[in-house]
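The protein record filed here:
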Amino acid sequence: MTGLSAAISTTLLRAEVDAVLADWAWHLDHHDYDAVAGLFTEDALFVTGAVELRGRSAIKRRYTERVVARSTRHTYSGLRVSLVAEDSRATADGRPAQVRATSTWVNYAVNAPAPADEVGVYLVADFDDVLTWCADDRWRISERRIIPVFRDPSRAPVTA
């Protein structure tokens, strides 16, 4: 592979991963929890703090168990994409079977419907994701670990 085609390939891979992460934020912020769950593999691992979830239905339930209206907006930056070291498999078109994506997220949140006046940062966190290329030619998140850096507990979601 030439230097230019490798650079294009790397850029395309980063754009594909960026699209999955952007879709996650959009669907979550707009309460489309079926679409959120669809961004994960069937057996995905989702870890945030002491909470460990396994599978799409558990991930979806995480958001649907909230008992009050919640308005959020998620933004992120610092996306870094790398090959999963222990995974040497590749697809027929040369795409890696799995990649790791790390990024830093900011979650603005309020436990009230939008528009809201008293909104602040609920969480700043590092996300460590593994994405898997699936049989339907889509990247899906197969593992997500959310590592909190800063948190305002007063803005936490209210659950049953």
